[in-house]
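Side project, low priority. Logging it here so it doesn't get lost.
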Amino acid sequence: MNTVRKITNDLAIAGQPAPDKLPQLVEEGYRSVVNLRSPDEAGFWNDEQIQIEQLGLRYVNYPIQSSHLTPETALRLIQQISDLPKPMLVHCDTGIRASVIALMQVAMKQGMRTEDAFQKVTKLGLLNDGS
């Protein structure tokens, strides 16, 4: 599997997990997987939801592109995934979009306003590559 980066006890990020590595997620205690990839992206794995749910994990596909991410769309996503069973893995293709969402979620849990958290990840340069 791509490198999984544990952000908090409840949240980790990664690039696209390989199908043969999914059982490792269960072994490591993950209970949910959030996929930020769009079905029209090259390399999108069509059977991901089926395979993840067969392992007993919750699955959400919330396709976003960095170039279309706004504070409002990030907030909607964070609200949608906040009730998922933890710990959760958030992934995209390379991990950049997952990083944006994770950083925003952590910042907002610490009391930062959505717009301020969005500005912070923008200043880090995470929203400029369109990945």
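Brief comment: The chain has one domain: 5-123.
Revisit when time allows.
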